[in-house]
Design brief:
There is one protein chain. The chain is an alpha/beta fold and 457 residues long. It has one domain (8-452): TIM Barrel (Alpha-Beta Barrel). The chain has helices at 15-18, 31-36, 54-67, 79-82, 92-107, 123-126, 136-151, 164-172, 185-209, 231-242, 252-261, 266-272, 280-287, 342-354, 380-398, 441-451; strands spanning 8-12, 72-76, 111-117, 157-162, 214-218, 224-226, 294-297, 302-306, 312-315, 358-363, 403-409, 428-430, 437-439. It has an eight-stranded parallel β-sheet. A three-stranded mixed β-sheet has the order 6-8-9. Strand 8 and strand 9 form a beta hairpin. Helix 8 (164-172) runs antiparallel to helix 9 and helix 14 packs parallel to helix 15. The longest helix is centred in the middle third of the chain and has 25 residues, at 185-209. The radius of gyration is 21 Å and the shape is globular. 55% of the residues are buried. The structure holds D-gluconic acid. D-gluconic acid binds next to loops.
């Protein structure tokens, strides 16, 4: 069976990580601009001020994606570039940029998939309480409407939010990401509820303004795979995947159940219901908008087994387990476990529970990439990683999971948030001094996979 005809093979990126031009053409500030200015926040002291200079070099990047025969490109729109104050006056020059990008993509026969929010929250709205403000869902919906009105004649595929778990969990609970201020659980739960309200209202704004819109969102989290193929272990992995624990931001169902099913998990209500805004039950109607697909960013998973009593236990990783690498010796940055099983079991469990076509909205790895003496970038580890993961995804498709697409993270190496430029996730190498791009071996390899629709794996 394999990947279906018309499978969406793409790459993903995010505005603050690639665009640069932070102070150009009327762009407003985001929480990330302010965060990067604080000493000690970013591993290498850098910022996204210039990043890949994609704002000026988007045509070159689109040309490379065309050369690599991408079917689709998932990019994000920078909210403060479009609305410098977060709301109110529109910055036409900011919208013009996305106009140009979308036109270039369509000309190259690459389908645009726009993410409305990938973490660069307008600083002006942060100063008004950000997601804690009860008006924040409406602010997001108003912004969604502006984007929909301007791009919706050409962009039909949208993701509302990227990884709410991270932009609340790592930003307002632990503090590695902007704005990096810790709030108590009752506040973070309120924020997340508002985030989901914003998602619901944004979906409505998109539906109201974009003919034939196809909409999803792109959460992360909670991928587990069974220790063995015994029914007990499989059930244990499924339980682990959908459980609620004290680390609620990292529990998949805290966000995906309200959005996809219109309910908070029972256990979540028992543990955290007291922190939800009084209107929460009524709000679920708004949060639970029909979606066309279910996106999820999946990089790795954990192994679960039956505990012998109908529950599950997590199996610790073996000593010396395989993991991806980090660049330039600054520590174990994105040293993540290599667990291809997660691209089989993740989509399988998600499809069972939510019943929508599954899109892998991000997957990839950071490697030790350099330009070799021959002028090329040889990255066999990334090819091996992708080969294993895509085989697992194809197996899910073989088993009847409706897998709609795969977006590799990332297209070009870029600003990896708090890790600055110390990680390289791209299929395309970027020299951040000269802005020279070099297609890595994995980029050419990915082109072969696209051409063969994954049959060559
Ligand atoms: C995320 C973000 C991306 C990251 C990528 C690698 O998942 O954290 O969506 O912006 O750059 O995942 O860490």
């Amino acid at each position: 069976m394999g990947f279906k005809k018309g499978f969406i093979w793409g790459g993903a990126s995010a505005s603050y990580q690639i665009e640069g031009a932070a102070y150009e053409d009327g762009r407003g500030m985001s929480v990330w601009d302010m965060f990067c200015k604080q000493p000690g926040r970013i591993t290498d002291g850098s910022s996204g001020d210039v990043a890949c200079d994609h704002y000026h070099r988007y045509q070159e990047d689109v040309d490379i994606m065309r050369e690599l025969e991408f079917k689709a490109y998932r990019f994000s729109v920078a909210w403060p570039r479009v609305l410098p104050e977060g709301g109110g006056k529109i910055n036409e020059k900011g919208l013009d940029f996305y106009d140009r990008l979308v036109d270039a993509l369509l000309k190259a026969n690459i389908t645009p998939y726009a993410t409305l929010f990938h973490w660069d929250y307008p600083y002006a709205l942060f100063r008004r309480g950000a997601w804690l403000n009860p008006d924040s869902p409406k602010w997001f919906a108003d912004y969604a409407e502006v984007v929909a009105k301007r791009l919706g004649d050409r962009v039909k595929n949208f993701f509302t939010l990227n990884e709410p778990q991270c932009f609340i969990g790592i930003s307002y609970d632990s503090t590695e990401h902007a704005p990096g201020i810790s709030f108590p659980v009752w506040d973070t739960i309120t924020m997340m509820h508002h985030v989901m309200m914003g998602h619901g209202l944004a979906v409505k704004a998109l539906r109201g303004n974009v003919k034939d819109a196809q909409i999803g969102f792109a959460p992360c989290n909670g991928t587990f795979y069974p220790a063995t193929n015994s029914p007990g272990d499989i059930d244990a992995a499924r339980q682990a995947c959908f459980d609620t624990t004290e680390s609620w931001t990292w529990c998949l169902t805290s966000v995906s159940d309200p959005v996809m099913l219109g309910t908070y998990p029972e256990k979540f209500i028992k543990m955290f219901g007291k922190y939800l805004p009084a209107s929460w039950e009524k709000d679920l109607e708004t949060i639970h908008q029909p979606l066309d697909f279910y996106g999820q960013n999946i990089y790795n998973g954990s192994c679960a087994a039956s505990d012998g009593n109908g529950g599950y236990k997590i199996i610790p990783r073996a000593p010396g387990y395989a993991c991806t690498n980090a660049v330039n010796g600054l520590g174990n940055l994105s040293k993540w476990p290599v667990t291809p099983e997660c691209l089989y079991w993740g989509p399988k469990f998600l499809y069972e529970r939510y019943g929508k076509p599954i899109y892998i909205t991000e997957n990839g790895c950071s490697c030790h990439d350099v330009i070799s003496l021959d002028g090329k970038v040889h990255d066999p580890n990334r090819i091996d990683f992708l080969n294993r993961y895509l085989l697992a995804l194809r197996r899910a498709a073989d088993d009847g999971v409706d897998v709609g697409g795969y977006f590799h993270w990332c297209v070009t190496d870029n600003f990896e948030w708090a890790k600055g430029y110390t990680d390289r996730f791209g299929l395309i190498y970027c020299d951040f001094t000269t802005q020279q791009r070099v297609i890595k071996d994995s980029g050419y390899w990915y082109r072969e996979v696209i051409r063969a629709n994954g049959e060559n794996l």
